[in-house]
Each structure stands twice: as structure tokens, then as C-alpha cells.
Write a structure and sequence with these properties.
By secondary structure, the chain is an alpha/beta fold. It is about 40% helix and about 25% strand. The protein has 2 domains: about 220 residues, 2-enoyl-CoA Hydratase, Chain A, domain 1; about 230 residues, 2-enoyl-CoA Hydratase, Chain A, domain 1. The chain contains 17 helices and 19 strands.
């Protein structure tokens, strides 16, 4: 009987020092579905002169919308979420189980870094955690939920995840934001120095609370082929979008092509001109890239990096990739020229080759000029089906350069000459006649053409 009472006391103490993080786990997971792993695993820490129950880490398995998942939660209430060797061992054991089962992993992250007092063993522990997180990168979906502060090496756990959520003013930084600001000789609050206000490509979603995170995770898992059931078409396969005949933009294309209320846009705050989304088209789970710019999108270090990463992500999740092209060449300015843009473009070409593992569809809806065509409109990189809107413009050079080269000796108004070059030399039909496009279509019917191609390419 004494053992039973002792167990009750130990559980009561354990739950009292981790009540907040357990409450957050309960908000994310189905009611009473969380089963804890290594609940009483702890070690005596001589430097901090205390027994750290669970080393500030709670791990276990649970359900989200009846889908099995593993949970790793860092408890900020214990030593500010400091990670030591014991906590790292718990995380690794949990991730090993996720790798075997193929279940998604959800991380609740809030930490001031590793426990420096443990010395090199803490560094060894976090190194093994980071290796394990990256090992799972192309095997299971990983969701990072960042709240409060996430500093130092543990911030790299979030960086390696497929989906990153920042709750309100979460501060995620590889160092103390105060140190970063001091060395930069600027004064910023934590959220701006290491939070979602930074355009560093780390944050996928800014949310208000854990309930919004749960809704988003549920929607994503219901899209990913390995975690969702076959979907009976709930939207008209032959639905048209007459508005596209007048003007096409990312928002218009998303609403026109995707099944109603089925898509999620990722990493929306970074390189906004390259819109990356996942969702369902005619019931098929797909990934889309839309280059969104009224006069075409110039390639920069940021949008090339975003698109490259997204192609790997889509391929690893077995999602057909649809690219809506409105793309020019590399941006011509000194900042871009001084960046590793050319090296990153070659990395993009390699990613396009990697993407041949899934069906690929290109839709030129705006411009495909120069390198913009070479990368995203051509069939050369393994594209299965390539089409263009009837009003798309395709050419090795821009209309202004083309007008000067071809019609300079004719003379006349520059705008008239540019229009003449567009009509005569940039017409998508010219490209189709050279067998470089499969079809030229009326914009309003793009959903029908994409669905037909998906049915053919996926065999269903």
C-alpha cells in the first residue's frame, strides 16, 4: 500500500511541475488519448544540484483527429526548458518509435537552449537529436509548434520540421536576440529580433492558439496521401473560372483550380511572390507553385531557395507538382549578383530532376521569359504535361528588348512596337507549333485540363 501511495505522490509531483505543457498537449490531441513514454525518466544533475524529473521533456503517443502521432514537448517550467543528456535521450527514443511506425511527430518547443552546466554531454545529446530529426525528414511529417522563446541549438529542431507554427509573438533564434541586436547595433523587441516578423523563411503559420494549430494539422494530414483516405470528389470536376479570361493571379488560380476549401498555403510570409500550397484537385492530393507578379516574377536568392525546398518536400510526400509559370530571368541588381544565386539555380535544377519521381504539370499563365522558361516552362526537366493560357507570353527576351531588336528600324511608338512583338513573336501558339507545349487553352478551363492530366498520370 505504501508503494501505491508513493506512486501517487510521485505522479502528483510530476504533473504539478509540468501542468502547463500537459494542458497544451491536451489542446492539440484527441480527448484522453495521450499516453506518456518514459514518464519517470530522470537523472541527478550535480551542477544544478537537483533531480530533474523528465529532464524537462514530456514524450508520448496520441491521436489527432483519430490519426496516430507522437508528441515531444519541452517543459519550459523546468530550468527554462534547458535540454540535457537525459531529455535528449527521451526525445531520441520517441523519434525512433515514430520512425518505425511511420506516424507524424508534433513538437511543442519552448527552450532557452542546452544545459550548459552539463558540459559537452549536453552538446552530444542535442547533436544526436538533430541527427535523428533530420533522419526522419523524408519519412514522416514533422510539425513544430513554437511558443514563447526557442533559443540556441533547440531552435534547429524547428528549422528541420516540415511545418512550423509560431504562436503569436514566439521568439525563435539561434542565439539570444539581445546578443544579435547588440552585435548589430540595433534595438528590437524579441519578437522582431527572433520571431515571425523576421523574413527568414522559418515560419509557415502564425496562429493565435493551440486550437488553431490542431485545426491546421488535421487539415494537412487529411491532404497528405499517406495519412488520408481516398476522397470522393465533392466539387464539380468541370467547374470553370471565367474570371481567369480577364486576369489571373495567385488567389484567383488557387480558388479556380483547387477543390473548394481544400488547400493550405505554406511559408506565406517569405518570398511572397512564390506561392507554395498543398491541397486537393479533383480529389487528388497535389502541391502547387504559383509565381505571382503582375509583370512576371524575377528570380532571387529567396524565391529560388523557397521553390527548391518545396519541390523536395512535395516529392518526399508523393505529391504531384503543378507549377503556374509567370517567371522572368534572374533579377538584375548588384545585391542579387553578389549573392550565390547562380549556385542556387543549379541546385534548383537538381531539385527539378529529383521531382521527376512524382507527376509534374506546368501551366504558363503569364510570362515565361528567358531563364524563367528554361527552368519552369520547358519539358526538359521531366515535366509530364505542359500547357499555356492563350494569352500567355513566351520568349527568350522581354518585349521591350525584342521590340528594339526586331522593329527598331521600322520606327514608331515604343509601346506600339512592344505590342507588335508580343502579338507576333511571344504568342504561346508559336511555342506550341514547335512541339514545346502540349496544349494552348482558354484560361477559364484550366481546372478541367489539370484534373484530366492528373487522372491520366496517377491512373485514377
Amino acid at each position: 500500500m505504501d508503494k501505491i501511495n508513493a506512486l501517487k505522490d510521485r505522479k502528483s509531483h510530476l504533473y504539478s511541475i509540468s501542468s502547463a505543457v500537459r494542458e497544451n498537449i491536451n489542446k492539440l490531441t484527441d480527448e484522453k488519448s495521450f499516453v506518456e513514454l518514459d514518464a519517470f525518466a530522470f537523472s541527478h544533475n550535480a551542477f544544478y544540484d537537483t533531480d530533474i524529473y523528465g529532464e524537462g521533456v514530456v514524450t508520448g503517443f496520441s491521436l489527432i483527429d483519430n490519426k496516430p502521432c507522437y508528441v515531444v514537448a519541452i517543459n519550459f517550467e523546468i530550468l527554462n526548458g534547458g535540454l540535457g543528456q537525459g531529455g535528449c535521450e527521451k526525445i531520441i527514443k520517441c523519434l525512433d518509435k515514430a520512425g518505425v511506425s511511420g506516424a507524424p511527430v508534433v513538437y511543442l518547443l519552448s527552450s532557452n537552449g542546452v544545459l550548459a552546466g552539463e558540459g559537452v554531454t549536453a552538446l552530444e545529446g542535442i547533436a544526436r537529436v538533430l541527427a535523428k530529426v533530420n533522419e526522419l525528414a523524408d519519412r514522416v511529417p514533422q510539425f513544430a509548434v513554437c511558443s514563447g522563446k526557442l533559443l540556441g541549438s533547440p531552435s534547429l529542431i524547428a528549422a528541420a520540421c516540415d511545418y512550423k507554427y509560431f504562436i503569436n509573438d514566439a521568439c525563435v533564434c539561434y542565439d539570444s536576440p539581445y546578443v544579435v541586436c547588440a552585435k548589430s547595433k540595433v534595438s528590437l523587441d524579441e519578437a522582431k529580433a527572433g520571431g515571425s516578423a523576421c523574413a527568414n523563411g522559418l515560419c509557415d503559420f502564425v496562429v493565435e492558439d493551440f486550437e488553431q494549430v490542431r485545426e491546421s494539422i488535421t487539415k494537412i494530414l487529411n491532404i497528405l496521401p499517406n495519412y488520408s483516405q481516398a476522397v470522393i470528389d465533392e466539387d464539380d470536376l468541370n467547374r470553370t473560372a471565367p474570371n481567369l479570361n480577364q486576369k489571373a493571379c495567385a488567389k484567383c488560380l488557387l480558388e479556380a483550380v483547387y477543390d473548394k476549401n481544400s488547400f493550405v498555403t505554406l511559408n506565406e510570409g517569405f518570398a511572397k511572390e512564390a506561392v507554395t500550397s498543398i491541397g486537393r484537385v479533383g480529389g487528388h492530393a497535389v502541391a502547387t507553385i504559383i509565381f505571382d507578379g503582375e509583370d512576371g516574377v524575377e528570380l532571387t536568392n529567396e524565391n529560388v531557395d523557397k521553390v527548391t525546398s518545396f519541390i523536395y518536400y512535395a516529392t518526399d510526400n508523393n505529391l504531384p507538382i503543378i507549377t503556374f509559370v509567370n517567371t522572368l530571368g534572374i533579377k538584375a541588381d548588384l545585391q542579387t549578383a553578389a549573392s550565390p544565386i547562380m549556385k542556387n539555380v543549379t541546385s534548383l535544377i537538381y531539385a527539378l530532376s529529383y521531382g521527376n519521381q512524382v507527376p509534374r504539370i506546368n501551366v504558363v499563365y503569364g510570362k515565361a521569359i528567358g531563364l524563367g522558361y528554361t527552368l519552369f516552362a520547358t519539358k526538359a526537366h521531366g515535366v509530364d504535361y505542359s500547357i499555356a493560357f492563350a494569352n500567355a507570353l513566351i520568349s527568350p527576351i522581354s518585349d521591350s528588348v525584342g521590340a528594339e531588336m526586331h522593329f527598331a528600324e521600322v520606327g514608331g511608338n515604343k509601346e506600339e512596337l512592344k505590342n507588335k512583338f508580343r502579338e507576333e513573336d511571344m504568342d504561346a501558339m508559336n511555342t506550341a507549333k514547335k512541339a514545346c507545349l502540349d496544349n494552348v487553352i482558354e484560361p477559364a478551363h484550366v481546372r478541367q485540363h489539370v484534373i484530366a492530366a492528373l487522372q491520366m498520370l496517377t491512373g485514377c
